[in-house]
Design brief:
GO molecular function, one term: protein-cysteine S-palmitoyltransferase activity
Catalytic activity: L-cysteinyl-[protein] + hexadecanoyl-CoA = S-hexadecanoyl-L-cysteinyl-[protein] + CoA
GO cellular component, one term: endoplasmic reticulum
Helix content: 40-55%
GO biological process, one term: protein localization to plasma membrane
Family: Belongs to the DHHC palmitoyltransferase family.
Number of strands: 13
Number of helices: 14
Strand order of the largest sheet: 5-6-7
Distance between the termini: 89 Å
Length: about 425
């Protein structure tokens, strides 16, 4: 006989969760957490059906409906891939389609070329301000830049090289320049100097601690020459930081003054800034560049300048070779504005149109490069320049083209030496301590 007390408890078997079936190359998990198929991209979309009905009946669409339609389209725009279809950013597609179409249309006639090449920068600026106002990341400009490089090189190989005026050495130099641009862009796309977000328990400061530190900092800056003038550039307004930021000052006025980022919950060093688009603080942030879809900061500023320099040299060289081929016996500057008979042949017309497109892009990049050289010479970042212009501080020269805040300026040679040593944490710059 068995007693009840000696009976062993019966272990309940755990219910095994059903394993998810692996996705095929055309399947994916949509934003609602359901399995979907690439072939069903136009099926079961109530928002799209409602939008089409209202458009047919000449009724206005609500902004919320348009946003839902765009979210659905961007979620269903995928390409087959191993272990499930991959999502494609919709902002990549317009440059791939519109740029060749616009350039081919512009090569039909001189007047069409003027209209198209004038409208392209206007459309690009409009889209930039649209996305910048919404604080959204976009791959449109990165896609436009990379595709422009590839397409200009393709037209050069197809239309210019077969004419026999470009030698193998010249082609090799142009090709090497193109690869160097891509390498420099790859380096510039890396970490610009993001500040790592520590654990909240280690970095969270109470309001009383922040007020105490701020009070000590104000006491220490009293009587310190130039403290108010220099610090005015780094003051945060309520609009810039709605959650508020408290100013921290180390033990003495000669140490680096730092501030607290309420969004990243960390203390950031001098000249660091919170990027609203990337959503993280960047060390010595210069600006957010849409052409690389990343910030330009302490760790990638040199690569960014190098990429601009190589692009300008390569672009000017390619423009020179193309004009020398399609407009013989004329100087480059003369051929750019007067090249008779260039629209008689479609091949030369397309090449000439691409030359003017390259000139417009090169002129824009040359302006950015010039501003960067000026800022480096005065040891200011683009963010500091914009803030100085808003607050009407600093010294303005050449109608605001040059803005000298006087905060970190150590002289031309020392400023460039400091820029050449960016990213080396061991090197200390005492002039930046007086903030």
């Amino acid at each position: 006989m068995t007693h009840k007390g000696s009976m062993k408890p019966v272990k309940k078997k755990k219910t095994e969760e059903p394993e998810l079936e692996p996705l095929c190359c055309c399947e994916y998990i949509d934003r609602n957490g359901e399995k979907n198929h690439v072939a069903a991209c136009l099926c079961d979309c109530q928002d799209l059906d409602e939008g089409c009905d209202r458009w047919i009946t000449c009724k206005s669409l609500q902004p919320e409906t348009c946003e839902r339609i765009m979210d659905t389209v961007s979620d269903r725009l995928r390409i087959p891939w191993l272990r499930g279809a991959k999502k494609v950013n919709i902002s990549i597609i317009p440059p791939l389609v519109l740029l060749p179409v616009f350039l081919h249309v512009a090569s039909w006639h001189f007047l069409l070329g003027v209209v198209v090449l004038t409208s392209l920068p206007v459309l690009a600026l409009w889209y930039y301000y649209l996305t910048h106002r919404r604080k959204e990341q976009t791959l449109f400009f990165l896609s436009l830049g990379l595709f422009s490089l590839g397409y200009m090189y393709y037209v050069f190989l197809q239309e210019v090289v077969p004419k026999g005026r470009v030698g193998p050495v010249q082609l090799a130099v142009l090709t090497c320049g193109l690869f160097l641009i891509l390498l420099a862009l790859h380096r510039a796309k890396k970490n610009p100097g993001y500040l790592s977000i520590p654990a909240s328990s280690d970095t969270s400061l109470s309001s009383g601690q922040l007020e105490c530190l701020n009070r000590k900092g104000q006491e220490k800056t009293k009587g310190f020459p130039g403290a108010d003038t220099a610090g005015s550039l780094n003051n945060r307004t309520v609009k810039d930081d709605p959650k508020g930021s408290s100013r921290l000052l180390a033990g003495s006025p000669t140490k680096v003054k730092e501030d607290w980022c309420a969004k990243c919950q960390l203390v950031r060093p001098a000249r660091a800034w919170h990027c609203r688009i990337c959503g993280i603080c960047v060390r010595r942030m210069d600006h957010h560049c849409v052409w690389i879809n990343s910030c330009v900061g302490e760790s990638n500023h040199q690569a960014f300048i190098l990429a601009l320099l190589i692009f300008l040299l390569t672009s000017v060289y390619g423009i020179t070779l193309t004009l020398d081929t399609i407009c013989r016996d004329r100087s480059v500057f003369t051929a750019l504005f007067y090249c008779p008979g260039v629209y008689a042949n479609y091949s030369s017309a397309l090449s000439f149109t691409c030359v003017w497109y390259s000139v417009i892009v090169t002129a824009g990049m040359a302006y950015i490069f010039l501003i960067q050289l000026i800022n480096i010479s005065y040891n200011v970042t683009e963010r500091e320049v914009q803030q100085a212009l808003r607050q009407k501080t600093g010294r303005r020269l050449l109608c605001g083209l040059i803005v000298d805040t006087g905060q970190y300026n150590r002289g031309f040679l020392r400023n460039w030496h400091q820029f050449s040593t960016l990213g080396t944490r061991a090197i200390h710059h005492p002039a930046e301590d007086i903030v």
